[in-house]
Write a structure and sequence with these properties.
Mean pLDDT: 77
Structural class: alpha+beta
Shape: elongated
Number of helices: 9
Distance between the termini: 83 Å
Radius of gyration: 27 Å
Oligomer: single chain
Helix content: 10-25%
């Protein structure tokens, strides 16, 4: 008599090993939203429907959810860092999940079925008995969580009974009247009951984990051996950039206490490669630039009295948001340079270093005059110790970092998912109060703090407001100054020959996007802001830029 065998698993079925507390297959807790979406988009036949849910009014403060209805999976990310915090299985018939025991034998959560619908012998999910006896083994009694109250307070109202193991939990539907704290789990749950969902999280139990689910520091991805085994080790991710004005940036690593400095106008391509590794791509700029020219008004209203730092206001200053995914003849990539020269940090001309997985782009060009020191930092106040080698002056013909674009990866924005989210903070705006100005702050709050910081360079409040008015742009328009690749970065139109993004495609993320943004300029800073007040990009420059009235856009 032959031994029955399991039916073959469809090659398109999402099949993954469960790693309690760490991962479901390649879906690893702590991975970035950008990484996960990029990977999902490379398998459109397996992941046929990606539904990204977020708060339209608070996209940088509320959780982001990716629903995969065709695969029975739901992924939840925190908003500030956009890291995967919770993996949920909501339909056990649309995936194949297994775990490997100490003997390295696989145990299926649900045995794959060739039938299109579950049968009585093969229900729509694992039974309590299978989970408790074979799949994970015994555990402590669970926690009963009340469901929402109804107007009539019906006695048969349901709640959820959550049964936890370290790093994984199952939720079972249960009537309130059936629950008793005096009963153990075996008495409470029928052996054939199927859970509603399974959750994978970081923590000893769901009761403990949900208290810090969105804020806890997750382990480094490098410590997850199945993900890194046999693969090249890259530098740790950049977790935070502190902006100190005058082109000084303090860059912090994720999962370590280490940091390094970038100074616009002095940091070389070799320095960038040494600290960050080779860029994901290199894009060059041509000579046809989009400039923001200062209109000569015969007034020195925008000058700060007796400040040598403000002598170059008449210089032409382009305001590229990024050269990543360029869709214009103004940029071209060099495969040879990206693979060889970029590794050593040697480039022969002005170009962008695109770090998609760090969340920013760096313009490498000849040095220009530094942006002014913020008034609150004069005489070195509120500034950490500066490395001694910063006293050296860059050669006028050398190539250095002159601009860096920090990307917010805000859900609903036009460039969503081209870069990982990069968090930043402006400490000198927080020194006078307890309010921290950072990448999650609404722009009206940022704007108010910056106006107070720079008010001394203007003769009046009215002049300051005129100089700092916003400039409205539309990324979705083709062949217009507002959508120029030089000005914004991104695609010129659907038919443009775009450069590849981090996922190897040149396709904008499918879904509704707000292509209208507003630029606001302050000395050394340009903010790109959505209608909801979220900052979608911050440009740091080594030259002075004061936006709004007094500037106009022309083709150069």
């Amino acid at each position: 008599m032959s031994t029955p065998t399991s039916p073959p698993i469809s090659p398109l079925l999402f099949s993954a090993q469960l790693y309690p507390g760490r991962a479901l297959g390649w879906l690893v807790l702590g991975a970035s939203l950008h990484d996960i979406l990029t990977r999902l988009k490379t398998e459109p036949q397996r992941f046929t429907n990606l539904d990204v849910k977020y708060s339209p009014t608070e996209p940088t403060k509320s959780i982001v959810v990716i629903d995969l209805p065709a695969n029975g999976i739901r992924l939840q990310f925190d908003a500030p860092e956009q890291r995967l915090r919770l993996i949920e299985v909501v339909d056990f018939t649309k995936n194949h999940i297994f775990i490997k025991a100490a003997d390295n034998k696989e145990r299926d959560l649900v045995r794959p079925s060739a039938a299109s619908t579950p049968s009585t012998d093969n229900p729509a999910g694992p039974t309590f008995r299978h989970i408790y006896q074979r799949f994970l083994g015994p555990t402590y009694d669970g926690e009963f969580i009340d469901g929402p109250k109804t107007p009539d307070n019906a006695v048969d109202q349901y709640g959820l009974y959550v049964l936890s193991w370290p790093g994984v939990a199952f939720s079972f539907l249960m009537k309130k009247a059936s629950y008793s704290a005096k009963k153990n789990v075996v008495d409470l749950l029928p052996s054939t009951q199927v859970p509603e969902t399974m959750g994978i999280f970081s923590g000893d139990s769901w009761t403990q984990a949900r208290q810090t689910l969105w804020t806890d520091v997750l382990p480094s991805l490098k410590t997850f051996t199945p993900l890194t085994k046999g693969k090249e080790v890259f530098p740790d991710e950049v977790s935070l950039i502190k902006i100190y004005g005058a082109g000084k940036l303090q860059v912090f690593r994720k999962w370590t206490d280490q940091h390094f400095w970038i100074r616009l106008g002095q940091t070389t391509p070799q320095d960038l490669v040494s600290h960050l590794g080779p860029p994901d791509a290199i894009y060059r700029k041509n000579d046809h630039k989009m400039f923001a020219h200062k209109v000569r008004t015969g007034s020195d209203a925008l000058k700060r009295p007796d400040s040598a730092d403000l002598k170059h206001q008449d210089d032409l200053t382009d305001t590229d948001q990024s050269s990543a995914n360029a869709g214009s003849d103004g940029y071209h990539s060099s495969d040879d340079e990206t693979s060889d020269d970029s590794v050593e940090g040697h480039v022969s001309g002005e170009c962008f270093y695109n770090y998609f997985y760090h969340g920013f782009d760096v313009l490498v060009s000849k040095p220009t005059a530094p942006s002014p020191v913020p008034p609150s930092q004069e005489q070195g106040k509120n500034v950490p110790n500066i490395p001694r080698d910063w006293l050296l002056t860059a050669n006028a013909d050398s190539l250095v970092a002159t601009k860096i674009v920090l990307h917010g990866n805000v859900p609903g924005s036009y460039p969503f998912n081209r870069h990982r989210r990069c968090r930043w903070e402006i400490p000198y705006l927080s020194s006078a109060s307890d309010v921290v100005i950072n990448s999650e702050s609404d722009f009206p709050q940022i704007e108010e703090s910056l106006r107070k910081e720079w008010q001394s360079i203007y003769p009046s409040e009215d002049e300051a407001r005129k100089a700092q008015r916003g400039m409205v742009l539309n990324r979705g328009w083709g062949d217009s100054p507002g959508s120029s690749i030089e000005f914004l970065g991104g695609w010129e139109g659907d038919g443009a020959a775009a450069a590849p993004d981090a996922g190897g495609t040149a396709k904008k993320f499918d879904g509704p996007a707000d292509s209208t943004t507003t630029l606001y300029g302050f000395p050394g800073l340009v903010f790109e802001v959505l209608k909801n007040g979220a900052v979608t990009a911050l440009v740091l420059r080594d030259t002075l830029l004061i936006g709004g009235a007094g500037y106009m856009m022309v083709n150069g």
